[in-house]
Amino acid sequence: MLRPFQVRRQASQPLVCLRCAVRYRHRSSSKDSRRPVTSRILKDRSTAEIRRRFVPGRACRTSLEAQPLWDSNSLPPHEPPPLPRPDLPSIRERLRQWEIDNANAYKPVDVNSDVPEPGHTVNRVIHPNYVEFQEVSETDGLDDYRESNFERFDLVDVGDSRGFLLPGDLVELSSLGNRRQELAIFVRDLGMQTQFYTMTGRWLHRTNNSVKFFVPGFVEPKELDAIRPYLPDGEVDTSLEGRLQSFQDSVALEIGKPLILKMTNFWNQADATFQSHAQQLDNAHKTVADIFKFRYASLDEIATKVLGNTINRQDDGKYPWAVLYAVHRTLLKDDIGFRALPHGSYQRTNVQYEINGSSEVDAIRRVVSWVRKYVEIKLSNHASETKLAASEVVLFANHARKLIDISRNNRQFTSHGMIGPSLRTVEPGERFRAGVPGEAFTANDLYFIRFLESWACLGSFSTHSTLNGVGSAILRAIDRYENVSLDRTTGWTCLQELGALAPWETTAGFDLRLPYTGRQDAIEHRLHPRISRMAGGVVPDKLKALRKDWLDTPVFCVDDEAAHEIDDGFSLESTDNPNEYWVHVHSADPAALLDPAGKVAQFAESLAETIYLPDRMIPMLVPDWAHANVSLAPDMRCLTFSAKMNLQGELLESKIQPGILRNVQYLTPATFQDIASCADVHIAKDNFVVGNHIDTKTVSRLLKTSDQFSEAEREQMKIIHTITGARASLMESKGAITAGVRETDISVSFDGFPWAKPKSPSHSHQYFGDPTIRLAVAKTADDKVLEERAINAVGILMLLAGEVAATWCKERNIPIPYRITPLNPDKQHPYEFFLKNIKHAAKPIPIDTMMNYFSTIGKVQPSTVPGPHAALGMEAFAKVTSPMRRYCDMLAHFQIESALLEEARTGQSLVGSTSHHYLALSKARLDEILPRIAARERQIGRSKVTANRIWAIQLVLRAWKFGEFELPRPLEFTVRSVNPDTNTAGGVVTKMMIGGNMRIPSWASAEDIEIGDRFEVEIDDINTYTTTIVFKALKSLESEAEIAAKKLALAAEQ
C-alpha cells in the first residue's frame, strides 16, 4: 500500500512487528528464559492502532503501530530499573560526526548482483533488497530497419502517446523483488544509461528505462536545472548501476526540496485515494476479471470499471494521475490476479495489464492452501500418518511418481529444460506427434498440474513471488528430483515427465496464450468463430459495384512454395510515355466481406496477426473460408494500390481502386529473380539436422517455372525489377541503409503430420518418436555471405503500396494505423546523425554506428495521426498489403473502403475533408485499439524469436548430450559483449549463428577482452527452458580486428 512519505521519512512513530512482539511476550513469560533487554520502542508505545496503508516495499496489507504489551507507566516483568547513562551527544550528532570522520574512507562493497537468471527465482524474504532498482531488459525489435532509409522530414510530436521519456517525466521505480517502490523524475539520457532523481533526494542510473507507470510532464524541464550540476554528467561504473546513491554522494536536500515536495504530495494524494476507496480497490480483481478467460485492459479502463463515478474526472474526461497511480499500486500488490505486461505498447501511458481469470486464481489459492496444510502436518510434532497419507499433496505425489517412472523407461531425465529423446524408434508414417494416451489424471491431479502450468508455463508469478516456494514444495514432495534446483526449469520438465506437455513443447505458445495450450480454463480453447452471415459477421461484397475488371492483365504472385495465404501480387501497365509505367500492387480484400464488429473481425483483433512458429501456424482468418473467398486467385476480389513511376524510380502519381483479378500467375522468389535479374540467386547454406524425417513441403497452388512465361511477361518482370532497383538507389541516396544480415532458417518436421488440437487433455501421454529439426545457416567465405545480393523487388513494391495508401488517407484526413517516427526533442535528429556519421562514411558501416543511428530513430509506432517514417524515408506509411495476416492492414482496408464508398455515393473527392461520419471505425475507437494491437504485435515478434531459438537449442542439445550428430569442430566464439560483474562474455558461435555466454577463463580477464575477440570453446551447459547456452573457453584465437589487419596488409602487398 501507499504509505505517506513524511511518516516513512521522519519515522516519528516506531513500528514493532506483531510476530516479534508475540515472541517477546512468550519469552518474558517463560520461566527458563533470560530477562529481556529494556526496549525503548516498546516502552514508549501507547494505545494499539492498526491502520491499512499502501506501505512501500511491504507485502502485507496491515502494519501494527503502537502495540503495547504492558502499561506504559510500568516496566515489564522482571525488568531491572535502567542504569543512569553518561551525558553523551545525541545519536544523530554522533552519526553526523562519524560520517564526517569516515565518509571519505568509505569503499562500496562489491557483491554479486542478486538478479535472478531467466527461469530462476530469488527468495526475497531472506534476501530482501531495498536499494537495487534494476529491471530485466526487454528486446527492442528494429521495426522495418533492414531497409532503413529517410530524408529530412518534420517528425511528429505525439504528446502523451510517445514511447520514450523526456526530462521532467515522473516514473515509478521498483527495487528487486518489489520490496520498495520509489517515485523518481527522469533527468536525462546518458547514452546507455538513464538518470533519475528520486523522492528520497538520491540519484539513480539505469541501463534500461522500462517503467510500468509514467506521468508525462510532471515538472518542467527547467525545474531540473538546479540539480543537474550536482549529478554525474556521464555514465557511471557498472557497480553503481541500478542502485540508489547515498546521501553524501547526492544532491543537497535543500536544492532538490521543490522536486521532492512535488513527488511527496503526489504520493500522499495516491495514498488518500486508496484510503477513501479501499474496499473498491481491494475488490478490483472480482470487479474486472472474467470467470475463465484472460482479459486485457489499460490502467484507465480498469480504473473506470473499479471506481466508476466515485471520483471526479478532469476536464479531459480522464482520472487524475494520482488516482491512476493508486489503482496501479493496488493491481501490482495482487500477486496472481494482475500482471503488467512488458512495455511492448507504443504508449507508456497505455501500459496493458493481463487479468487472470477467476478460475485460475481460485485454483492457485486452493493448491496453496493444500501445500500449506501438508507442510504443517509434516512439521507437526505429532504428525499423523493417516492425515499425511490423505493429504492432497501426497495423493498427487504418489501418482506423479508412478507417471514419472513410466516416462523414464522411454526418455531420460535431464537438467537441461527438456527430457531426452525417445528410446523407441517410430515407423515411417506413424503419428507420434499427438502422443499415446495413458492413465487419466484425477481431479486432484489436474489442480496441481494447473498450478505447475501457471508457475512454469504461463509465468503467472513474478520471479520474486513467494508462490514460487509452493511450486518447489510440490516438486520436493514428488521426490524424483534430487541434486537439481527445484525451480521453474524443473517444473517445466516435471510436466513433460507427467505426460502433460510434449517433450519438444516451447514456451512460445504459452506466452502468446494460444488456443489449446495447456489445461487452463483462462485460455480460450477455440481457433476461429463459425462462419455465417449472422454469427460470424460475413457480409456480401460491399464494393461489388465499384470493382474494376483487370481482364487479361497478368498479375504475378511471388511467394514461397509452401505459402498457404496468397495476399498480394503485382502487375505493370504501360503509358504513352515509354519512360513511365503504372505499377499496380494488388492486395487481397477480406475487409469487403466482413463486418468490422462481427465475430470474425473480433477474433482477428484478439489474435492481431497470423502467427508463424517453426512447429505450428495459427491463421488470423478461418483457413478454408479465406482460401475459398479471399486468397488471390482467378476471379477473386482485390484492392489495388497504383503508383505511376518512371524508370528513375520516382513516384509521379497514385490512386486506389477495388477490382477483380482474372489472370493470376504464381511463382517463387527464385523464379522471379531468375527472370528479372538474369542472375543465379542460390544461397549456399550449412545444414545441421537431428532426426531422420524427410522435410517435405506441400505446394498449395500451381507454380510456373521461368520457361513457362511468355516473352512479354518476362519483359514486364524485368521492367519492374529495373524500376524497383532505381527506387532502391534513390532511397539510398536519401540515406537508406541496407544491413547485411546473415540468414538462418529453422524448420521442424513431424513426418508430414500437422499440428492438431489435443483430443484427451485429461490424460497423461507418452510420446514415442521425436521431430526432425533443421538449422540452415548461410555460408561465409572471407567474412562475406555466399549469396548473390539481389534487389528485393517484391519488398520494395510492398513498401510502395504502403506509401500510396498512407498518402491517400492523409490527403483525406482519414485515421488509419499509420506507422510513424515520433519526435524526440531530447535526441539528435536522425537526418543530422546520418549526414555526420553515415552518408560519407566508408562501407560497411560499423555496427556500433548503426546501433547509435537506430537509437536516434527510436521505436516506430502506429498512430491515427499521420507522420513521417524516418526509417523508410517516407512522409507517410501504413502496412496494407497483408490484410489476411495482419489486423492493422485489415483496419486500414476498412477505412479506405468506407471512403471509396462515400466518394462514389457523393460523386466528390474527400481530399481536404474533415468529416468522418462515413468511416467504419471512429478515431476514438482506433485510438483504443492500437495500444493493444501494438503490444500484441511486439509480443508475437518476441515469441517468434524465442521459439526459433528454443528449437535451435533443442537441436544443439540433442547433438551435444545424445550424439545425434557431430557439432562443428572447432566451435569458434566471437565476443559481442563483456560483463565484468558476472565475469562472462556474450557472443555467438559463428558457424551455427547461435548465441550464448562464455565464462571468462582464469587465464584471461574481463578488462582485457574486447568486442570482436575470438575463442575456441566447448559447450559447458544448456538450458532449453531459459534459452541459455554456456560455453567454456579452451584457447584464444585471432580477433576480428587482427584478421582484418592481415587482409589489409595482404591487399597492400598485392
From TrEMBL:
GO molecular function, a single term: 3'-5'-RNA exonuclease activity
Cellular component annotations (GO), alphabetically ordered: P-body
Domain of life: Eukaryota
GO terms, biological process: mRNA catabolic process
InterPro entries given in the database record: NA-bd_OB-fold, OB_CYT4_C, RNase_II/R, RNR_Ribonuclease, SH3_CYT4, WH_CYT4
One Pfam family here: SH3_CYT4
Residue intervals of the RNB domain: 547-902
PANTHER family given in the database record: EXORIBONUCLEASE CYT-4, PUTATIVE (AFU_ORTHOLOGUE AFUA_7G01550)-RELATED, RIBONUCLEASE
UniProt-recorded name of the protein: RNB domain-containing protein
Source organism: Marssonina brunnea f. sp. multigermtubi (strain MB_m1) (Marssonina leaf spot fungus)
